[in-house]
Structure formats: C-alpha cells, structure tokens
Amino acid sequence: MDNGFVIGLISWFLPGYGHIQQGYWQRGVIIGACIWTMFLIAILSGGAYYPGFEFKDGALLFILNIFAKSGNGLGALISWFMSSNPPVDFASWATFEYGGRFLEVAGLLNYLAVIDAVDINAGRKK
After folding, report:
1. Rounded CA gap, 34 and 115, in Å?
2. Contact by Cβ (8 Å): 84, 17
3. Are 100 and 83 in contact (CB under 8 A)?
4. Phi-psi region of 53 (alpha: psi -120 to 50; beta: other; left: phi over 0)
C-alpha cells in the first residue's frame, strides 16, 4: 500500500496494523500489544467510566482529554460505548482514575505509532 493517508488511518483505527501492512511485523506486533494491553488494563480498571474533564473545568483540559481518548481508534469506540451505561458503584473503585489515565496514555502512544507508520511509508524512516 502506497497511500500514506490510508496507512495513517489504518494505524490509528487498529494500533500496530499499519506497520504490519508495510511488512514490519515485529514492530507492529510490539506496538499493537503495548497499546492494546494498556487499553485492556484501563478498561478493566474502570477507565471507561472515569468522567475525565468537562468543558466547565476548562476548555484546554477538556480538549486534551478528548484528543487523548480519541487516539485509541477502535478502542475509543469501545470505551465510549462502555461509558454510556456505567455501573452504579464505579466511583468506589480504587482504580478507575488510574484507568482513565491509562486510556489517555494509550491513545497518545497510538498517535506516536501512527506518525511512525506514516514516516515509514513516506521513506523518512526505516
């Protein structure tokens, strides 16, 4: 595949797959495993239910929170679907704040992986 936009979109939606698509199997599997592991830890910790920031808390914090969570691609859709029906006692979980941060960091890490896959496609990196 020679289209950098499509590689970037695939890399964003399925972490690690953009590298695999270009023949970098080891790198793609490691990146995908790291991001999906962080995502699963976040979900199991209750990160999907963590409210994060609202616009009234500050526009910049709200935008950064949404940007970071959106970086998960398919994981973002899964977490938004899960957060639509939270359990009653989720605020009593000791880990749900950590889960929220893990969700954000997984998304930001995926953005770096997307940039890496696009750079490989453009020939700027091997």
Report:
1. 16
2. no
3. no
4. beta
Sign of the C-alpha dihedral computed for residues 123, 34, 86 and 94 taken in this order? negative
pLDDT of residue 106: 95
Report the predicted TM-score, pTM, of the whole model to 2 decimal places: 0.87
Q: Which two three-digit tokens encode residue 43?
A: 């979900």
Structure tokens at 56: 């009234």
Count CB-CB contacts under 10 A for residue 68. Answer: 22
How far is the first Cα of the chain from the last one, in angstroms, to the nearest whole number? Answer: 16
Distance from the Cα of residue 14 to its chain's centroid: 9
Q: What pLDDT, on a 0 to 100 scale, did the predictor assign at position 7?
A: 94
CB 9 within 8 A of CB 56: no
Distance CA 126, CA 118 (A): 11
